[in-house]
Write a sequence for this structure.
């Protein structure tokens, strides 16, 4: 036996300040540990791990890089944070951690874990579990609540090729799920199926699918993520398009990160009309050639990043820089567009998007208030389509009453251009030597800037001035009336200020009631509202303890889906409005008062109904089999011999037959 210095790492600090326990005495950096060359295997690794453990009251422990094949059973019961990364662990069971009731953070990344078993007996306080870069090829089925307090689960770098249905249903409090760098989508038609996120999807807020092989985001599985706020789709080599109503059931989405997905060539921006809380769009270093506008239903500022994309120069892109109070283009000076294929000349160089508003007269004039616009009908026109003469700085004015615009040559410096008005020529041919930029006329500009992206809820045309705004308090994703008034100079209904508590919303109806879900619809009050809050509880519950609260609903929303309800249960739901002054009060419905609360009953569980039908059919089948068996046995039973029965006639002595009549001779 010989002695060798074994380095013992210092105890790391807790992952979060709230998890830190009492300060421990710092031990020596090197501690002599006896080693026997004849001893090997897991017993030696476990024994050496138990020898250097701190006192029983320690709250943080690191066992990283110790060649452990299983976790030692002598861990301090007061442990809150445990780092077991870079070992040789091959399996993990929730029951193995049952002797650590206070454990909140467990890191087991870079091991060899290939088997994972959920089940009862795990630490109820476990908050964060990191299983990144192991050998998990499949997730275990969820039978019941295994880790009720788990909020963060890291599965990055595992060879997961598919998810099981209701794979996370036993983690009801899960908020963050990291599935990046897994093999999801590597096999054709295998990846994430409908219903994989059902059960725990109602609580999930952050989902990371970066580095996976999914080709698109399917509405069948993302619809179960009602509270999703951040979606990461970075460096996905097969992601090509974002389309459809994929975010229709994700009204709380605030951040979408698709940067460095080089195959992403098309984004149908109308998908963002169902995300009124959207604040960050990261689409840099993709393969996008255009990014059309849509109707922004929220008054929040939207930050968009598009640099590194092969954008085609078009005045349609000028909306990104038109209103800095609503949209901010990150690194606008580094974001450039290229001329369309086939164009040539001195102006065929890439153009930074920061200069695009100056190259598009309509976009530049739209940014200037009408009171400050020059009154003269001067226009800046491109050269004649087939003119061979050199370009001149003097441009004739366009006649009024034109329709569509024409391509513009943004090669001239801004100083050589005078006041510009919308082009009025009826679609002449493109000029030689200019970047083919499509300019929008009056009708098309209104359609692209405010009307075309409005969809089903937006106005078809600008209302006349001093007319009521196209505002309906019950319309879902309704643009705030203050924004409509600023854009169209129309009239809004009277609203109370931010310093006054808002009036209660009017609960319109509770529709689409199922066994575990329901859709709540309401109308906005005549008050300044920053957001809404839904409170619901089962009737007969113990006061506020059984009440559930859904907070952070956007001010433009007029409906919200409730999930995780109990089947065949009566509920009471209330909708509250919030602003700087506080929350509205749920008043009882009465004469002249809006109804802010309502009661509804969920349907019986379809699974229970199906189970009852199956049980009834099974009982009927068993009864039929028993009856057939009894009849068969009765038929095969030996029968007694039949006895001979003879009929015996007896004469009734009291009966006298009538005399026969005598015949006359």
């Amino acid at each position: 036996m010989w002695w060798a210095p074994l380095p013992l790492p210092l105890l790391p600090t807790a992952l979060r300040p709230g998890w830190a326990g009492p300060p421990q005495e710092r031990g020596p950096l090197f501690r002599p540990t006896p080693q026997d060359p004849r001893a090997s295997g897991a017993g030696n690794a476990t024994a050496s791990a138990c020898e250097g453990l701190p006192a029983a009251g320690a709250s943080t422990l690191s066992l990283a890089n110790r060649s452990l094949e299983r976790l030692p059973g002598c861990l301090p019961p007061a442990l809150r944070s445990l780092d077991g990364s870079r070992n040789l662990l091959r399996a993990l069971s929730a029951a193995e951690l049952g002797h650590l009731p206070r454990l909140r953070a467990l890191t087991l990344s870079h091991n060899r874990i290939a088997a994972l078993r959920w089940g009862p007996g795990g630490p109820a306080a476990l908050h964060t579990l990191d299983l990144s870069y192991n050998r998990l090829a499949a997730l275990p089925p969820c039978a019941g609540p295994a880790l009720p307090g788990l909020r963060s689960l890291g599965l990055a770098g595992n060879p997961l090729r598919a998810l099981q249905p209701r794979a996370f249903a036993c983690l009801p409090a899960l908020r963050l799920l990291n599935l990046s760098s897994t093999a999801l989508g590597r096999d054709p038609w295998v990846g994430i199926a409908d219903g994989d996120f059902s059960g725990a999807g109602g609580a999930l807020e952050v989902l990371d699918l970066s580095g996976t092989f999914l080709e698109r985001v399917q509405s069948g599985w993302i619809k179960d993520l009602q509270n999703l706020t951040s979606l990461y789709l970075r460096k996905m080599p097969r992601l090509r398009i974002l389309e459809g109503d994929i975010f229709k059931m994700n009204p709380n989405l605030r951040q979408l990160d698709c940067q460095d997905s080089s195959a992403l060539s098309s984004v149908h921006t109308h998908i963002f009309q169902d995300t009124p809380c959207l604040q960050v769009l990261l689409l840099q270093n993709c393969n996008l050639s255009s990014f059309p506008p849509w109707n922004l239903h929220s008054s929040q500022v939207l930050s968009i990043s598009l640099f590194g994309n092969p954008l085609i120069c078009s005045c349609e892109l000028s909306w990104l820089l038109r209103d800095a109070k609503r949209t901010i283009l990150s690194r606008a000076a580094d974001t450039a567009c290229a001329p369309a294929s086939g164009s040539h000349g001195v102006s065929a160089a890439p153009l930074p998007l920061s200069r695009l508003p100056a190259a598009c007269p309509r976009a530049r004039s739209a940014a200037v208030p009408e009171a400050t616009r020059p009154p003269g009908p001067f226009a800046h026109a491109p050269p004649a389509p087939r003119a061979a003469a050199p370009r001149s700085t003097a441009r004739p004015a366009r006649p009024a009453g034109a329709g569509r615009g024409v391509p513009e040559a943004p090669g001239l410096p801004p100083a050589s251009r005078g006041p510009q008005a919308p082009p009025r020529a009826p679609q002449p041919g493109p000029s030689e030597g200019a970047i083919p930029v499509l300019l929008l006329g009056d009708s098309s500009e209104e359609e692209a800037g405010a009307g075309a992206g409005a969809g089903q809820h937006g106005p078809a045309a600008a209302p006349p001035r001093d007319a009521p705004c196209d505002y309906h308090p019950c319309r879902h994703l309704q643009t705030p009336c203050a924004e409509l008034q600023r854009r169209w100079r129309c009239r809004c209904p009277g609203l109370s200020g931010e310093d006054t508590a808002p009036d209660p919303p009017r609960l319109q109806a509770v529709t689409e009631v199922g066994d575990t879900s329901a859709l709540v619809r309401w109308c906005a009050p005549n008050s300044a509202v920053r957001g809404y809050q839904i409170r619901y509880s089962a009737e007969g519950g113990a006061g506020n303890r059984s009440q559930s609260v859904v907070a952070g609903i956007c001010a433009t929303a007029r409906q919200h889906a409730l999930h995780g309800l109990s089947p065949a249960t009566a509920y009471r739901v209330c909708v509250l409005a919030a602003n700087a002054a506080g929350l509205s009060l749920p008043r009882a419905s009465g004469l002249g008062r809006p109804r802010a609360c309502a009661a509804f009953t969920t349907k019986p569980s379809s699974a229970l109904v199906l189970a009852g039908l199956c049980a009834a059919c099974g009982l009927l089948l068993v009864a039929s089999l028993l009856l057939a068996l009894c009849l068969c046995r009765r038929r095969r039973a030996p029968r007694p011999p039949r006895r001979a029965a003879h009929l015996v006639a007896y004469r009734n002595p009291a009966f006298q037959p009538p005399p026969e009549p005598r015949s006359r001779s």
